[in-house]
Amino acid sequence: MTQSKNNHMSCTRPNSWHGKNYTHHSQLSDEEFVEAFEKASLHPKLFNHEAHIRLAWVYLQKYGEEKAVEKTCAGIAHFDAIYGNGDKFHATITVAAVKAVHHFNKKSKSTNFFDFMEAFPRLKTAFKELLEQHYTPEVLTHEKAKTDYIPPDLLPFD
């Protein structure tokens, strides 16, 4: 894999991980996916909504809810600072996503992420609607919600 001086993937092979080209995060094992994400060598095009949910799921399996929230928020903020312009990270939505994944995970017998998503497709297909059950638009669009977690104003997560 071609690396630049800042240890990020080269633009010449943007979807490459250990010399292999990938078009979707599902082509990586959970360990490879998290390692690539944490090293910021995962191409941003591979870090779609489902990949956000996967990151939360993997961290929940490994660390539990509190540490998963912390690592997911820190990781996504860092990823945004590197690949975005630093203004895409939304603390409240990120924490809410981890809490939603945790909620469904407690009901799940799935031993891998893709079986989990098959059992709970709303996390991917109706995530906005899930959020709207917990939050009014005013809370989610409030400037403070981007930088600090605001608990739900409609329905608590637990």
What do you see in this structure?
This protein is mainly α and 158 residues long. The protein has one domain (25-147). Helix content is 56%, strand content 3%. The chain contains nine helices and two strands, in the order E-E-H-H-H-H-H-H-H-H-H. It has helices at 30-38, 49-63, 65-83, 91-106, 113-119, 122-125, 127-134, 137-141, 143-147; strands at residues 16-17, 20-21. The chain has a two-stranded antiparallel sheet. The termini are far apart. Mean pLDDT is 89; it is low at 1-14.
Summarize it.
This protein is mainly alpha-helical and 158 residues long.
What descriptive keywords fit this protein?
158 residues, 3% strand, globular, disordered N terminus
Fold blueprint:
Layout (H helix, E strand, L loop, with lengths): L15 E2 L2 E2 L8 H9 L10 H15 L1 H19 L7 H16 L6 H7 L2 H4 L1 H8 L2 H5 L1 H5 L11
Antiparallel strand pairs: 1-2
Number of helices: 9
- Helix/sheet category: mainly alpha
Principal-axis shape equals globular
Radius of gyration: 16 Å
Say how many strands there are.
2
Helix content: 55-70%
What is the overall pLDDT average?
89
Order of helices and strands: EEHHHHHHHHH
Strand content: under 5%
> What kind of sheet is the major sheet?
2 strands, antiparallel
Number of discrete domains: 1
Give the uncertain stretches in residue-range form: 1-14
Order of strands, widest sheet: 1-2
CA distance, first residue to last residue: 44 Å
